[in-house]
Amino acid sequence: MGPQTLIELGRRNRADPTELARWAADLERRNFRFGNFQAFVEAYKFVAGVLDSPADYALAGKRLVETLAAENVRYAEVTLSAGMVLWKKQSLEAAFEAAAQAAADAGAKLGVHVNWIFDAIRHFGVEPAREVLRMAARYRERGVVAFGIGGDERRGPADLFVDLYREARDRGLHTTAHAGETMGPESVRAAVELLGAERIGHGLRAAEDRAVLALVRDRGVPLEVCLTSNVATGAIAEASDHPLPAILREGVRVTLNSDDPGLFGTSLEREFLLAARTFDLSREQLAGFIENAIDAAFLAESEKSELRVAHEALTLGLGSA
């Protein structure tokens, strides 16, 4: 959610007006920079707090798809922080069904297909994560394609979740994990070796250990790079500090991603522009990120082929313009 949706829902749900105005102004004034990960978590908790009813989740889902359509996105795998919904003691069934239906309705009109990843909060522990996994498996037929963990890597080490990840695979779900965002390369190694994560969210700290980069490269595990997010949470000072060039030199597969676009004042389009300008990337390299995203998508091969055809047609059109 961007600041305008935050204000709209905050007023609807009678959030404290002074607090609401302060957070909305803070987001704008600080240019969406939080300084450190814990400060971001506090903002995240406040924003999540204004999502109170299924109608609120429906509005968020609808506006997300409208934003994606404006950026010419054809397919998205959207992370729902299911662990946060449960932490708020809300009905995950009602929240997800409302958001998914609104996203599907908007997507049918705008040409955007959305699938979902249910994310558990790793520092809440194993049992809350187990409930997220149970719900993810229940909604596989409604477009939930994967289970993952996010949150504080230090307080929720990967070895706690080995059995859950095995169960997720047994239930037919793909797996992801945030790692190497607030901890070092050992966190990325654990996500790959212990959990068998198929994609790594962020992974920027993997660049501190060439053996870890070799591990993710050799296993074909893509890193979901989020430049603006890493600046906003203080993981790096500026986008130019991101080790993306070193990661690419090692032959690691990379996708570009927006993370929390509303909280970070970004979009997928902006991330591509930022990467291109910061690292002087070619059109071919940018197209490669999209090709990597298609390859890494949790889709049937026939659906990936359709996306490749659409991508190739667009690339040819741009090339002749």
Which features does this protein show?
about 325 residues, alpha/beta, TIM Barrel, 7-stranded parallel beta sheet, 7 strands, about 10% strand, globular
Describe the structure.
This protein has 321 residues and is of the alpha/beta class. 56% of the residues lie in helices and 12% in strands. It contains 16 helices and seven strands. It has helices spanning 3-12, 17-29, 37-49, 54-70, 82-87, 92-110, 126-138, 162-170, 185-193, 210-218, 227-232, 244-249, 261-264, 268-279, 283-296, 301-320; strands spanning 75-80, 113-121, 144-150, 174-179, 199-202, 223-225, 254-256. The protein has a seven-stranded parallel β-sheet with strand order 1-2-3-4-5-6-7. β3, α8 (162-170) and β4 (174-179) form a beta-alpha-beta unit. It is globular, with a radius of gyration of 19 Å.
| Percent strand | 5-15%
So what's the CATH class? Alpha Beta
What structural class do helix, strand and pairing data support?
alpha/beta
Number of helices: 16
**Low-confidence parts, pLDDT < 50 over ≥5 residues?**
none
The sequence of SSEs as H and E is HHHHEHHEHEHEHEHEHHEHHHH
Tally the structural domains. Answer: 1
| Shape field | globular
- Quote the CATH topology: TIM Barrel
CATH architecture: Alpha-Beta Barrel
Q: What is the residue-averaged pLDDT?
A: 92
Distance between the termini: 34 Å
Helix content: 55-70%
Radius of gyration: 19 Å
Q: Determine the CATH superfamily.
A: Metal-dependent hydrolases
For the largest beta-sheet, the strand count, sense and barrel status come to: 7 strands, parallel
